[in-house]
Amino acid sequence: MGVEERGDSGNRGRGVNRRRAVRWLVIAAAGAAVAALASVLVPLPRGDFARWSVQSLRVLDRHGIVLREFPNDQEGRGEWKDLAAIAPALRTATIAVEDRRFALHPGVDLIAVARACWDDIRAMRFRSGGSTLTQQVVRNVYHRPRTVAAKLLEMWDALRLERTLTKEQILEQYLNRAPYGNQLFGVEAAARWYFGKPASDVSLAEAAFLAALPNAPTILNPRRGSAGALARQKAVLRRLLDQGKIGADDYDRAVAQPVQIVPPESHFRAPHVAAIVDAMEDSLARGSVTTTIDEPLQEAALWIMRGHLKHLLARNVHNAAAIVLENRTGEIRALVGSADFFDSVHNGQVNGVTARRQPGSSIKPFMYTLAMELGLTPATLLADIPTAIPEHHGDYVPENYDRRFHGPVRLRTALACSYNVPAVRALQVIGKTVFLDKLREIGFTGLDEDPEFYGYGLTLGNADVSLLELSTAYMTLASGGIWRPWKLVEAPDEPVAPRRVYDERAVYLITDILKDGVARRPAFGINFRFPFQCAVKTGTTKDYRDNWTVGYTTRYTVGVWVGNFDGEQMRGVSGVSGAGPIFTDIMIFLHTPPYGQPPEDFAVPPGLVQQPVCARSGKLPRPACRKTITEWFMKGKAPAESCGVHREFIVRGPDGRQKKETFEIFPAEYRFWAASERIPVPPPGARIAPGAAGPARTIERLSIVSPSGGEYFKIDPVLRREYQKITIAGFIPRGLSAVALRINGGEEIPFGPSGVEWRLEKGVFRFQLVGREGSAVVTSAPVVINVE
Questions:
Q1: Which residue among 139, 153, 333, 524 is least packed, with the fewest CB closer than 10 Å?
Q2: Bridge-based pairing state of the strands 725-731 and 703-706
Q3: What are 97-128's pLDDT values in tens digits?
């Protein structure tokens, strides 16, 4: 009996435990249900719906025109707009097509869900999820996989989002996050990409077109064909009419309105500018970045460039680059990196404004400005004669572009005509180190080698620089010697302060030379004619691989490069014929209504004086001087000596009578040049006229003038051999005939007043001139050179 009682007691104990377990399960389930229901009241983190994740980098010109837009964190384009800045028709159309009961449901539309489930069951496949705008915002933020569990979580979060944001805020979130195809997120990006206008300005027809796209942005992609998108647009308009959101007249007008999609090229304005800005991304906030570019000028420069390149194609020219800087601020108004960014055959994505190449003679003005500061004047005579300058790698022998020598030339003529030999002679006076330091000071940061690496070729443009650096340096001349950095966007850091790097008087003297069309005419003819004052300089590199034209007015500095990005040679295209016409047309466009106005003339700074000088000697003119010019000088630097070149002699004429004649008598270093130019010399028996200055020139013996002997020459392994020649120059007195150049005591080459061009060959060579005076043989002193 006791055993039975114990059994009943055990059964009762197990029953009690079972009931307790069930009760706790019910309590736990009820608690979970209450917690779940309560979680609906817990807002979602507001930070998950911040604007920054939608914002992409939009590069604008100075007027607000979009130049380019870069992807945001979702690898798409977007720009956040407040709901008030979006056209009401676009808001209405979106609600009508995506969520007609948006204002009534708590985040999940059970009617739409039930209808979607029924549609899916009938179709035996997933067709529609019945998502509300709120659910789509959740989906666009959290990017969950398309599973049943994810769908339930999405619905739950939608209920929470309705407790986090107002209906207006949710609609704003949707309109700024919805996908519209072509990596576009949000109606602002879509409106600008497809219609070229902001979302605030779209018409009813355009609003319906945009509202249709998020339903199937890939299938309805307007860039692949607008038929599907237009059909869907008509359906949206019909739904608006059926819902009473628009009237019949509005519907008819919207259906009849053609939808114009702007071409994609319009979104790639100034692509090289956009690339520079994008590279600054770490220092720029995402969103709209306003540049200093003037898009109308940018387009004008591009089309000017393309028009001229068409005429240069036959001469193997395929590309160009141009930049326009405003002198007063340093702001870049136009930057065209290539003729066609999308031309992959000719490397159109290379930015010719920032690429480094040899500038040729366009670097010379900075050396000559320094020379002015160190005591030279525009009237200083520089020797343009055969010259061999010893350097550590062998003698450096400069040649002029026209392969001629011009004897004594004034600095004004040497710079204006871009003669190479006088430039090297001037650099010898200044020093390579001093010049290189100055170039670095005015912004040529890439010149990081020592002076001996560049040698005297530095003043002829043998060091690689960019068009941006070169034009910025020219802007220094345009600003009277004040250097300031170029500017493309407003930098967050303090800008580098402008600083004076040249004496303004020296800069004016250079400017006066660069705008002197008469001075450049002997070398370049009648080119660069402007109806206003414009200083300009060209540059052409060896083998015609690059040519440049850079110049300035009081308002703008313009730089142009022409060539091929792969380094292929052009056919005889110089800075005058290649970059020059592009430069000229851009300059005229800049200063001609309706775009601009003529610039002011360059102001003459204090401390300069004008004085007449002899055009040949650069000294004070004498009565015998045949031509005088008026030249600018810094005070205290004007010449005090009279001309010693033009001298009067008493000569006997053919009739035996004596008469006075003027001859040009040059120092000994010019004797070969004078003979090659057949400049008359006083005949035997001539005597200096009374009052004439200086001794009469004596007739000298047969001699080799250049090379002088003992020089070392080096063969360039890259330059073609036919270009590696030196001129052997000599002096031939009157009365000698059959003059020849004897090489190593054997081969003889006819030798005339212009000398002989001899191609460099490896070895040691002995040169000697041989001629006849009647029956006698006359020889010169020998000259020996080494070629490595």
A1: 153
A2: antiparallel
A3: 888 889 899 888 888 777 767 666 666 555 55
